[in-house]
Amino acid sequence: MTSRTPLTGPAVWRGEEIRHSTRWIRDFPTAAITDLDAALAHVKRRGLAWSQVTRADFPIGRLGELLAEIADELENGCGIMKLRGFPVDRYDEDDLRRIYFGLGCHLGTPVYQNRSGELMRAIRDEGAHVGRTYGETKDQKGSTFLSSYARTLTNGSLRFHTDRTDVVGLLCVRQAMKGGVSTLSSTPAIHNAILAKRPDLLDALFTDYWRSRFGEEGTTKETAYPLPIFGLRDGKFTSHYSLTFIEAAQMAPGVPKLTDKQKEAIDVLMATAEELCFEMTLEPGDLQLINSHVTYHGRTPFEDDFAASKSRLLLRLWLTMANNRPLPAGHEILWRNIEAGQPRGGILQTTM
Fold this sequence. Notes:
Layout: H1 15-18, E1 25-27, H2 33-45, H3 63-76, E2 80-84, H4 93-107, E3 109-110, E4 121-123, H5 130-134, E5 136-138, E6 144-146, H6 148-152, E7 158-161, E8 167-174, E9 178-179, E10 182-186, H7 187-197, H8 199-205, E11 208-212, E12 224-228, E13 230-233, E14 236-239, H9 243-250, H10 260-276, E15 278-280, E16 287-291, E17 295-299, E18 302-303, E19 313-320, H11 332-335
Parallel strand pairs: 1-2
Antiparallel strand pairs: 2-16, 3-19, 4-19, 5-6, 7-17, 8-16, 8-19, 9-18, 10-15, 10-17, 11-12, 13-14
Helix pairs in contact: 7-8, 7-10, 8-10
């Protein structure tokens, strides 16, 4: 019999509850657009590319209080936020990147999203070449297996997962003709639901699941590491999960196979996430921010219509947060630093 107890707090929510709440929604203040314009002009006078912008380069004036409120809600509140009305149509893409990156530097600190040093990723359908470019291999049946990174850059659905960062920011510049709806689920709520119906499986989720670094630091599925799906330290919960990384590791020689209990736990985890989720439709100018430690996110498939200027484009930032939580011992293998308030996450940069 498990000794685990239910998690509490505002990060424990069900989709049917949160969709009727407004605590996770903020509107971009129209009066702050002049602050953005002034900060952008300062950056351009200095001749800075977006990736060179620092917090000091980008004074945000009256937006500071709003960003501090958002950072607190992400860590100590419900763990999700949507900032509506970001003036994406006011700027070309280069200037939009400068502004978005500058704001990101005030909210947190951007970290690398892949082994080639990207700090901002354009999330869109890049076509049939994504596997060759971002990682593919063959599974046991001889079918093409795309890395998690490659799957993000298709128009297909994405299963519930987390990214290797405290907070993920997705700024919607354009939406697809059809689909591409964001799905979100509270991982503390998933924890509680599994505790109530299958406590034996909850215990299994606190055991090591081997994952592959294929498509991240590694170029082959043989680079693998063990990490539990659920973790708890000092009353703070965390979940790091991507079934794609687990599946890739299972194809690698020498990696321990999942037990029957672990396989069943994954099935129940995914089903529970689906039961408890809600859909967040992103319109142009919406900025979605999610705390990866307490939120799974996914995506429905989408269809673009380039002739009608309906081609999906999101700009993604990964942020390490100054107010982040402590992580359990053993999580260093992924996060490198597990103490609260310390920079961590992102993809380790390797030199050839």
